[in-house]
Amino acid sequence: MDTLASDMQKVLNFPDQMEKMLHQPARRYVKNAKAIFRTPADIYEHPTFYSFVLDMPGLEASNIKVKVENGVLHVSGNKKKKNAGGETTVESNNGGKAIRIERRRARYMRKFTLPNDANQQEVKAVYKDGVLTVNVAKKPLEETNKPKSVTIPIS
């Protein structure tokens, strides 16, 4: 019985790397879920465009990515502090010693399925005071509701 228990223990004890590989999708999902909940958004419809307004405080514009792919608007951003050596560091306040750090990094992410009349080629983004505004133009009305006639050959 002891050998069975020890054999089971050996089988069930994966190396750390194997454990990380097996749980990677779950970890990614949890990180994405936290990022999604951390990123509140408002969506507005205007006569000629849609406007997506997202709170993403503490980021630099260069750390924000906006892309449209297959009718989905992807918005993401990361806040990390790096020193000259490339290592992540904690920002000190005027050279003071940090006692507690709760704001050192953050991840923001949202995905929005665009309406059929959204022009995926005309997307503009502006980031100011921690708020990202993404405007997606609408297609002209004639282009979205254009009737199509099909000629059927007579045999």
From TrEMBL:
Organism superkingdom: Eukaryota
Cited Pfam families: HSP20
Domain SHSP: 32-155
Keyword line: Stress response
Ranges where the record places region Disordered: 77-97
Protein family according to the UniProt entry: Belongs to the small heat shock protein (HSP20) family.
Protein's UniProt name: SHSP domain-containing protein
Taxonomic source organism: Aquilegia coerulea (Rocky mountain columbine)
Lineage: Eukaryota, Viridiplantae, Streptophyta, Embryophyta, Tracheophyta
